[in-house]
Design goal:
The chain has helices spanning about 5-25, 40-75, 80-90, 90-105, 110-120, 125-145, 150-160, 165-175, 185-195, 200-205, 210-215, 215-235, 245, 255-260, 260-270. The protein has a domain at about 75-180: Alpha Horseshoe (Serine Threonine Protein Phosphatase 5, Tetratricopeptide repeat), CATH 1.25.40. The protein is elongated and about 90 Å long. With about 270 residues, the chain is an all-alpha fold.
């Protein structure tokens, strides 16, 4: 069951609970005994106060329940949220630690291996990243979260393209639902496949779209590096390459094993 469906069910349950509590307190029967008033004014005041309390009690209860539920939910996903924050800052090693922690705590959630796979991809640990993504797919087949329908095959395709497994990469790209996912990541994957097949001009066309230019992190640096390689192949012009941005916190070893020609180009290209 997807998170969105769970959220809808939760809201329905909470609304039903609220209505039930409101009806119970609104129509609570009296004990049948008339209280002995101190004075008529005091009796009216006590009656009005009791009515206000009975009307607001379900709302207070519901508010406290919401606070408790939200805090429990935040605590449950705290490691994942912190990992995502670090990933957005380019601190991939630290992000991976938090994602691994979340994966251990929530072993049945496909988001766990998916997030570790994304972090390892940014560190060019390609074989490990692919294993994580495949583990996420196995969990997805049981839980079917909608938010991973495009993200999983998209990241698998990029990883497979970098590993030189072109046919599998194209198969994963075809599995991305139409009109979903990240056009930049998909175009980069297609550019890698074209470049590795010797079509530098076609690769540059894919790399030139706006969404590719907006890619960040080491994957964004890869797109710029690949563009420089294609320019050299087409015109013999040498462009500068930002090695720090490309490798980030990783060594070039993982990328070199998968695509030695690309790393050889980086080593001979002028550095920033």
């Amino acid at each position: 069951m997807s998170n969105s469906v769970k959220t809808i069910i939760l809201w329905v349950v909470l609304i039903v609970l609220f209505v039930a509590f409101y009806q119970v307190f609104q129509h609570a029967p009296s004990d049948g005994a008339a209280p002995e008033p101190v004075s008529e004014r005091t009796g009216h005041a006590e009656s009005a106060w009791s009515s206000v309390v009975l009307q607001w009690l379900p709302i207070v209860f519901l508010f406290l329940f919401f606070v408790f539920f939200l805090r429990a939910l935040q605590k449950r996903h705290a490691a994942s949220h912190e990992g995502a924050r670090l990933l957005n800052q380019g601190r991939y090693l630290q992000a991976l630690e938090y994602f691994d922690k979340y994966r251990r705590e929530q072993s049945k959630q496909p988001a766990g291996p998916f997030n570790t796979g994304v972090a390892r991809l940014q560190l060019w640990k390609l074989d490990e990243a692919l294993n994580d993504l495949e583990a996420a797919v196995r969990l997805t087949n049981k839980r079917q979260p909608e938010e991973l329908a495009a993200l999983l095959p998209e990241h698998q395709a990029l990883t497979l393209a970098l590993l030189g497994r072109a046919a599998e990469a194209r198969q994963k790209l075809a599995a991305v639902p139409a009109g979903t996912g990240d056009p930049g990541r998909q175009a980069l994957t297609e550019a890698i496949l074209l470049a590795r097949a010797g079509d530098a001009a076609g690769a540059r066309t894919k790399l030139g779209i706006f969404e590719v230019k907006q890619l960040g992190g080491t994957v964004g640096a890869l797109a710029r590096t690949l563009d420089a390689l294609c320019i050299e192949q087409l015109t013999a012009e040498r462009r500068h390459v930002d090695r720090v941005a490309l490798y980030g916190e990783a060594s070039p070893d993982g990328l070199k094993r998968a695509w030695p020609e690309l790393v050889a180009f980086v080593e001979r290209a002028p550095a920033w």
